[in-house]
Amino acid sequence: MALVIYGLCALTAFACAYLLLRAYGREHHKLLLWSGVCFVGLTLNNLMLIVDKIVLPDVDLSAVRTGLALVSMMVLLFGLIWEAQ
Q1: What residues does each domain of the chain span?
Q2: What is the pTM of this model?
Q3: Please, what is the angle between helix 30-50 and helix 62-84, to 10°?
Q4: What per-residue string of b and e applies to 15-48 under the rule 16 or more CB within 10 Å gives b?
Q5: What is the tens place of the pLDDT at every residue in 8-28?
Q6: 52, burial (CB in 10 Å: exposed 0-12, middle 13-18, buried 19+)
Q7: What are phi and psi of 72, to 5 degrees?
């Protein structure tokens, strides 16, 4: 059951990334780019969660997952600050 939930979270993040980056390709608004890149990172974070909890349960990858989430959020924060100026 956990694999289904983790997989759905990864698919949702991927769908958001795809839609945001596709909209950026049409509209060229920088905030769409920063948001899309953030969701790419969150997709990778969710995939690492699957690897951490399902594929390699004996290996602790929580630092890698947290690092990916942190970098993703920092990209979005940078984009928000950059666009506000």
Answers
A1: 2-84
A2: 0.91
A3: 170
A4: ebbeebbeebeeeeeebbbbbbbbbbbbbbbbbb
A5: 999 999 999 999 999 999 999
A6: middle
A7: -60, -45
